[in-house]
């Protein structure tokens, strides 16, 4: 069997073409998983909250002038959720600080609307408390992971 010593030595002892380059991945897998799970949970949250508002308007004496603000807050929250999630996904996967920062800002708006539905809604059922507590917990975890990811991207 023929062995080319020059080829073998050049493969073993020549400098690597990848030397000096780093391919460290800075995007956060826990953040990506939480964004995905939170997106699925939000669909459930929206439908359940909408169903409860409809239920409360039929069962309880729901004032007509207070039904519209509760529905408006829920739909505004749904409208905010789409760019919030998109910017979170995009910022994490592209390792960019700006989209993650914008997503973090939209998260603050979503938290305020969620607190409205938790505390100042016309009628608050125990299911409302449970759904909002889970959503607020997810927002809190997500915000912490976003801040950590932004810090990793900047440094």
Automatic annotation (TrEMBL):
Q: Name one GO cellular component term.
A: membrane
Q: What are the record keywords, sorted?
A: Cell projection, Membrane, Transmembrane, Transmembrane helix
What is this protein identified as?
Transmembrane protein 80
Q: Where found, per UniProt? A: Cell projection, Cilium; Membrane
Q: What organism, scientifically named, is this protein from?
A: Cyanoderma ruficeps (rufous-capped babbler)
Segments forming a coiled coil: none
Residue ranges of the TM segments: 33-55, 67-86, 98-119, 131-154
Give the way it sits in the membrane: Multi-pass membrane protein
Q: By its UniProt entry, which PANTHER family does this protein fall under?
A: GEO07735P1-RELATED-RELATED, TRANSMEMBRANE PROTEIN 80
Any one Gene Ontology biological process term?
A: non-motile cilium assembly
